[in-house]
Amino acid sequence: MALDTVTRVSVQGLGLQGPGWLRLSVLQPGCEALLELASEDEVPAGRLLLRQRRHWDQAQPRRRGAGHLEDKSGGKAAAGEESGGKEAASSSDMETGDRGTADVASDSGSDDEGGAAASDTDNDSEADSDDEAAGAATGGGMGEVRVCGLTFDAALAPAARSAQAAWLAGLGRELRYADPTRDQLALGLSGTAKQLSRAVVCNKLARLLGLEGDDGCPDAPLPEGPVVLEGVLRPCGDPSRGGAGLQVAEPIRRNEVLGVVGGYVMPADAARDFLSTGHKECRPEIAARLTAVAEGTRADAVTAWRLLAGAFRMPLPADMQPLQGLPVTAELSMLGYGNLAALVNDPRVNPRDWRAENDVDSQEAAAKANCAVVPVCVRGLVLPVLVALRDIAPGEQLMRNYGADWWHDLADAWEVAEHDGLDVARLLHGTQLPPAERVP
């Protein structure tokens, strides 16, 4: 049973000041509830494994939303000031390193720790199942849900929880007996996903999620923070594509999962508002940094913002909508909430669609991509997963096809910014290209 039904005051009144265990007994016939401290010996071993990495105050409520850009990258600007890559602008989730997660918080955004009670009633197994489902999506700030490096806006959070609960209800067995590769994960069957191995992709992702392998636990809660292939992905320079990119440090085989693309998931209409007017909601220090990037040019903070927000925008096609069956279309923003996957460039070398020699619609250029984002359903939520399309050698830069439409959508903001003399590399990556390498 999660502690969102019990106030923290009453828990601390029992003398529990940190992580611990409680026993909830329902007394018949009056159905009065008795809450007592429990010893670890009373707790099933499986429950101990699920909770071994929890913290009493794991997360504090934070004011976050589509209209509020929060800088959590160690003091670096949302525009990636002196960080060497997009990750400074989009690696807010990197601070959440633990795989252990709290239970679903209430819509108020509080993250009260969910200690599973060793109940004396016949409802213990049902409570455990509910708790396991809740552990798949954890509370963020202001009613948000965070799972696998994705933060779901409060408007989508109830649907995210419902989708996971419905999946669990339809599973037909306890989560610990559900095979991670076959039962808990499902690779999409359309587009690029058809070219990949379902078995390999699902197995590799299950391992990254901590569900599969020698140290895996099939009924473990999904991680809240970033999911990337640790130690293999490294930021690199790329002057021809804005200054930065992402390369691999080890050989990567086809079908290898490189990570889940992190970001903030919001309704498409909110995403449009965020793109056009989000600069008005920035904290003063972020707005000041946007102004600093535009200083000495004919551009202003509005011009800088629209290019920045557009560059970190990731529209989600129908098969990649995280909440299938909803009439609301969602969109992903990697700005302020992304991870290393935000650094992956497009293979096109001249995607400025306002120039006659552009390669925006070139199939030959797009075909040079060595990885792709594909939809994988994980416990009821569809996640955008970055997967290798072919074998990739150490030192080779990762490239994925953004799609011609994405470049056409960005073109207006990009053209205006360059016309007004804005240093795009400095805006996107916090770096400044030498004058000789800038696009005139």
Automatic annotation (TrEMBL):
Residues 121-133 have a biased composition (Acidic residues). The lineage of its organism: Eukaryota, Viridiplantae, Chlorophyta, core chlorophytes, Chlorophyceae. It comes from the Eukaryota. InterPro entries: SET_dom_sf (IPR046341). Residues 54-138 are annotated as: Disordered. Residues 75-92 have a biased composition (Low complexity). It comes from Gonium pectorale (Green alga). This is SET domain-containing protein.
